[in-house]
Design brief:
- The protein is an alpha/beta fold.
- The protein has two domains: about 10-155, HAD superfamily/HAD-like (Rossmann fold, 3-Layer(aba) Sandwich); about 170-230, Rossmann fold, CATH 3.40.50.
- About 30% of the residues lie in helices and about 15% in strands.
- It contains seven helices and eight strands; from the N terminus they run H-E-H-E-E-H-E-H-E-H-E-H-E-H-E.
- It has a five-stranded parallel β-sheet, with helices on both faces. The protein has a three-stranded parallel β-sheet with strand order 6-7-8, with helices on one face.
- Helix 3 (about 95-110) crosses helix 4.
- It is globular.
Length: about 240
């Protein structure tokens, strides 16, 4: 289909940008506190753009103090609890038990520490439909259960993403359509925030999922329209 020349990288919204905006509006930059980040390069880039300090990215290998005393009894935190203002959890291929312990302890030992999740998607799409690729959702769930804390989820279908879009572009919901391939995130996001909705069948969910949602009275996950793919929106050209 291509894109209109007016669309640039600044026209694209991703959960990482909403995470950084949420932290910034929470005033963490005024506290001199750092962010413990379980996440990918995209989140790092957005935090860098707002000069927010973070730590914890990359591999964090588990080591034992001795053969008889496991590391879990001698956990060494990278930063003192009072120096950490937020824990952010997103997709992280380096996630392990060590990171889980650190995140949980920062959240449990200081109730004022903010817990933010990029999204709660269960899996990522991939080239092999028989291979399960966990997304951020399972990681967020692990930290949530271990800490007993409820995260602020910024990604679809939650409100922080909508607030960010409205604040930045002043959109008119009545003239805006949410298009996506998931009924539980994309369609629900649109329905919950007064947007028109369309499901494209080129990704996660199909017509059977729409029917199941209707039968189970999950009206907020039933789109107004559906199409085989995004290209179906392009005007048909006459071929000579």
């Amino acid at each position: 289909m291509g894109y209109h020349p007016s669309i640039t990288k600044d026209s694209i919204v991703n959960p990482a940008a909403v995470v950084a905006d949420t932290l910034n509006r929470a005033g963490i930059h005024r506290t001199d506190k750092k962010v413990y980040l379980i996440g990918s390069q995209g989140v790092q880039d957005e935090l860098d753009n707002l000069n927010l300090e973070y730590f914890g990215t990359g591999p964090d290998p588990i080591s034992r103090q001795s053969d008889t005393r496991p590391f879990i009894y001698d956990l060494e935190l990278d930063e003192e609890v009072e120096n950490v203002g937020a824990v952010v959890v997103g997709y992280d291929k380096h996630f392990n038990y060590h990171k889980l312990m650190k995140a949980a302890n920062y959240l449990v030992q200081d109730e004022s520490c903010i817990f933010i999740a990029t999204n709660t998607d269960e899996t990522c799409p991939g080239p092999n439909p028989d291979t399960v690729i966990p997304d951020a959702g399972p990681l967020v769930a692990a930290v949530q259960v271990a800490s007993g804390r409820e995260p602020v989820v910024v990604g679809k279908p939650h409100t922080p993403a909508f607030d960010y879009i409205c604040h930045r572009w002043n959109i008119n919901p009545d003239r805006t359509m949410m298009i996506g391939d998931r009924t539980n995130t994309d369609v629900k996001f649109g329905r919950d925030h007064g947007l028109r909705t369309m499901l494209v069948l080129s990704g996660c969910h199909q017509v059977d999922d729409i029917v199941d949602n209707q039968m189970n009275e999950l009206d907020d996950m039933v789109p107004e329209f559906y199409a085989d793919c995004l290209g179906a929106l392009a005007p048909q050209r006459n071929r000579a």
